[in-house]
Design goal:
Structural class: alpha/beta
Strand content: 15-25%
CATH architecture of the largest domain: 3-Layer(aba) Sandwich
Number of strands: 11
CATH superfamily of the largest domain: Vaccinia Virus protein VP39
Helix content: 40-55%
Order of helices and strands: HHEEEHHEHHHHHEHEHEEHHEHHEHHHEH
Shape: elongated
Largest sheet: 7 strands, mixed
Strand order of the largest sheet: 7-6-5-8-9-11-10
Number of domains: 2
Length: about 425
């Protein structure tokens, strides 16, 4: 059908359908990716047995996607209904990454631009779901606004895709088919083991989420703990969960900026905070954690990193993730965090790459989100569903391609490694996953 449609447009004025068919053919020949497209008029392009497809809802949908910042345009078009994703959305993101990777020749670029210019123009839209933060980047006030933008959806929304303990970070799988609850419990235990937690220690969790790590550490390792978050949703729900667990006398969750923390802690964890801090502030962030660490203390930092050592994203880039998911969110390579630890006077103990575990985590979250689509609509909106579905699929594709990684760096106060740590690494291994 594609060949007959293309031929029909040769002699006269090309329709939007004709141009899309030609663009599809050029992309297929140049990249080898035969993307399945379902057009607004019922025309289907690409393999009939494809596990996934992109539906173009309107004649102008193709032009809405073919903009300079492709990931932003793609995600935005899906959120606003100009296109739809059918089937395996992670596979769609992988195909689009393969299309974007090759460098087009100047002639190819001009040909694509010329065809794009002849497509119908989309209507002007306000893009009302984009983040529009004000103030100095990474100031306390703006950081609070950025965290609220991402986290302060209804509590019920997160319950639709997270595990039973509401752990919103990379799990730690014993096998690819292990259930999410067990893998998240194992991750919590991994952190507790690495930090050598035991009764009597004072434990700080920076960016504590709903308090799942603190509650695990208090129940199984006997610590007293403080957790800080800037999310109103996490703060309110976390305090309720702590109270329900009977641990209010041992765990204190605060709505507080980590920069305002005072005191001394025997062990400190920071899970998923690195991306919110931003590459330009890694050194001051680690230095603050170092000031809070006791003489024999251990610090564990768990964060997303780029695999490319030279790559940095500071959060100002016009991508779908920075405009719709993590405003001001930044990513750099792992060496920058390791350098910040050493410059703060900490001794590096261990660095573990958890990238494959995060790919599996995201696949679990995405499957849960899609399974609970109707429940999401009851507590949030179709736009929220589409934003988070796109974000999870893009992120899973990034981890599976090894563009992204997530590392746990364990560091110690000067001399602590010699005084308090056993030889070898067997002591770090988490205990078997436990029940609720």
């Amino acid at each position: 059908m594609a060949a007959s449609i293309a031929a029909a447009g040769e002699g006269g004025n090309l329709t939007d359908r004709d141009i899309v068919v030609r663009l599809h053919d050029k992309l297929r020949r140049h990249t080898g990716v035969d993307l399945r497209l379902d057009l607004w008029d019922g025309t289907r392009i690409g393999p009939a047995d494809a596990p996934c497809s992109i539906s173009l809802t309107y004649p102008w949908s193709a032009r809405a996607v073919l903009r300079k910042h492709i990931t932003l345009a793609l995600g935005e078009s899906y959120v606003e209904g100009a296109i739809d994703f059918k089937g395996d959305v992670i596979a769609i993101m992988q195909q689009l990454s393969a299309i974007a990777a090759p460098r087009f020749s100047r002639l190819d670029q001009l040909a694509v631009l010329a065809m794009r210019q002849r497509l119908s123009r989309p209507p002007r839209r306000p893009h009302r779901r984009r983040a529009r933060l004000t103030g100095r980047m990474h100031s306390p006030a703006r950081d609070r606004a950025a965290i609220a933008f991402h986290y302060d959806l209804p509590q019920e929304f997160y319950e639709q895709f997270l595990d039973r303990n509401l752990v919103y970070s990379c799990a730690y799988f014993a096998a690819a088919d292990e259930d999410l609850d067990s893998a998240q419990t194992r991750k919590l235990d991994l952190i507790c083991r690495k930090l050598r937690l035991r009764p009597g220690l004072r434990f700080l969790d920076v960016g504590c989420g709903w308090g799942s790590l603190l509650m695990h550490a208090a129940r199984l390792y006997g610590v007293t703990g403080v957790g800080v978050t800037l999310s109103e949703t996490q703060f309110e729900a976390g305090r309720k969960l702590v109270e329900q667990s009977g641990l209010s006398d041992r765990i204190d969750i605060r709505l507080q900026d980590y920069r305002d923390l005072q005191g001394t802690f025997d062990a400190i964890s920071s899970v998923g905070m690195l991306e919110h801090v931003g590459p330009a502030h890694i050194h001051s962030y680690v230095a603050q954690l170092r000031r809070l660490l006791a003489e024999d203390g251990l610090l564990l930092n768990h964060g997303i990193v780029f695999s490319n050592a030279a790559r940095v994203r500071d959060g100002t880039e016009p991508t779908f993730l920075t405009r719709y998911v993590f405003p001001d969110g930044g990513i750099a390579a792992a060496w920058r965090l390791a350098e910040a630890c050493e410059k703060s006077g900490l001794t590096l103990i261990d660095l573990e790459q958890l990238g494959p575990h995060y790919a599996l985590t995201l696949r679990n979250w995405l499957a849960n989100l899609e399974e609970h689509h109707h429940q999401v609509l009851a507590c949030a909106s179709e736009e929220d569903y589409r934003i988070w579905r796109t974000y999870m699929a893009m992120a899973a594709s990034g981890f599976e391609s090894e563009e992204l990684g997530v590392v746990q760096i364990l560091a110690a106060a000067p001399g602590a490694a010699r005084r308090v740590l056993p030889l070898g690494q067997a002591w770090m291994n988490p205990a078997p996953a436990t029940g609720p």
